[in-house]
Each structure stands twice: as structure tokens, then as C-alpha cells.
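Example record

One chain of 359 residues, shown exactly as stored in the release files.
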Amino acid sequence: MELTERKKKVLRSVVDLYIRTAEPVGSKAIAELPDMKYSSATIRNEMAELTTMGYLEQPHTSAGRIPSPAGYRLYVDELMADYRLSMDETKSINSAIEEKMQRVDQMVEKVAKLVSQATDLPAISVTARQGGATVKRFELIQADTGSFILVVMLSTEEVVNKLIKLPLNIGQDDLKLLSAVLNATLTELAPDDFTGSLMDRVMRSAGNASSLVPVIIEFTLDALRRQSSANMAVAGQMRLLHQPEYRDIDKAQQVISRLDEDALSNLPAVMQNENGTKVIVGPENVSEELKDTSVVMTKFDIGDGMQGMIGVVGPTRMDYAKITARLSYFAESLSKMFAKPEAPQLPESVPEAEPHKEA
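Predicted C-alpha cells for this chain:
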């Protein structure tokens, strides 16, 4: 059955009305819309066909229709109108960001709370390093006769160090050999590349210092994983109680109890190769806990190899156009806030000064 322009207009109207009212939509309500030129009977026939096609559902006999996940998906992909933020909304978001955001390492929880306040839905905020960290260089510095300092310089420009005790049979020459082996074999590797066979090869090449290799590799892996791990915060779970879908306390508690970092941990991976805003409708969610909800997410740049992601979780009836607009504005504002100021451009050549002439 063909999805005609009339069917699309009726479907868009059903979704828009259901978003506003949280009540099943009847043909009479659609016919009374100012831009609707079709009779109630015509609209009723179109709604029946949209139900057969799987875009609408009828929750009760003789009741109106509500959108299905497929209906929401078509609405998000093709039908929803752009939502223009009001001046008050942009001022409110800008004010919140400027007043409450100070440092990147403290921002994740604050951003989640701000997004939740702006959307009145549970929100997630994530920061992670793009591409992961690697080791640029190892330095082994003898501290005294019984220990040395392991210095690991990372690709993120961070330097970490550890004081390690020396076995009695290891001297300065052994440390020099170990340093050369480490820099030749363990630099520019991702954590997954540190395999058991690689450790065996390094130990065979390290001579008398082979017993130090497992300690050094364990410390290096810990440093790399700390750099690569995502920092996540979830806020506003109780805001679901504002939604008509969750007036049933048992249903609300079941959903709210599942909205934790474990259930949401797969969402950043979903955005890994995405640009712009992504909408996941109901059954499309990868986590079983989120099958009855929809998720809207978008990314923003922090700089220095770091990237952020913000998103909201809510009923499939959420106002996708408004949520998408607000998240996009948040993301653009955060990217601008964290952008480094450009260095001043120097002229390509500086004219030589004329020699001083004595009078």
C-alpha cells in the first residue's frame, strides 16, 4: 500500500497531537486542525489504513489511534517540522552554561543536570578521548642504589610515573637496555595490543631486567585505560514521573530503576561513527532495559582529543523536534565554549629594519 502525501499528513498530525495531549487521537480532532482540508470520514479511512500498515496502533476498541515505533521512526526521518528555539530558550540555555560550567573535568554531571532541566527528561552526559591514548616514550631514571623511577609519556601529553624497587642483580646498564627495548616495542600501541606473546618477547630481550617487564606493562596498561575510559553521568531519572505514561507507580519504578550507567553504557558506542543527532525509537535500542523508551543523542567537541555526548531518554511520545533542537543547541554552545582561541596570524615575512644613520 502506497504511503501517499495525505497519509503522511494524517500521520504527522496524529503524532503531533499525541505528543501534546498523551491521549489517543481520533479523526474528529484531526479534521478540526486549521490546515486539514479532509473530512472526518476520509481521515478515519486513512488512519485505518495507517494502522494496517503498522504506523498507528489502536490501544482500545473504539478508541483513537497512537503512533507505533514505525510511525515515530517515519515521523523523525521525514515528517517532523523544524523546531525554532525562542529567544527565551536560547538565553536560558546560554545563561545556564555560562554560570554553571567551569572546568571540563567537573562538567559531566553538571551537563547531565542542565540537559535534564532543559528537556524535563532523564539525561546522559559522556566525555571520552577520541582514538585512545598510546605511549610516546618510556624513561627509566635510577633514584638510588635500590630503586628507579619509571616515567611514561602518553600521547595525550600527560606524564605518569612510578617508583619501582630494583632487584640486586640489576644495574644502570641493565636499565639502559630495558629502556631501549621498551621504546622499540611498546610505544604507539593500543591497550589491546599488549598481548601475552608481546610481553614474552620483551622479557626475552630485556636481559637481566626481564623481571621488571610485567610490573612496567601492568602500570602502563592502567595509565592507558584511565585515559581511554569514558566519564559518564545520568541525571533526572525521576522526571519520568512527569510523563502520563508513567503515572502507574509500578511501571515508573521499573523503568527508573533501569536507567543507570550500566543500561546506558552502550549508547556512546552507538554514536561512535555518527555525525549530528541520532534518534533511537523504542525497539531499536540495543539495551533491553530501553526497549519501551526512545533516546535522542548528539555529540560535541571538547578539544585536546576529547569528545562529549549528551542525550535524553523518554517515552516514545516525546516531542522529537523540540528535543532535537535543544540538544543541538546545547552541543553547539558547548563546542564553542571549549574551543581554543585561535593563535594570531603572523605576517609571512617581516621587513628588515633600516640601519641606523648617525647624524
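Notes: The radius of gyration is 29 Å.
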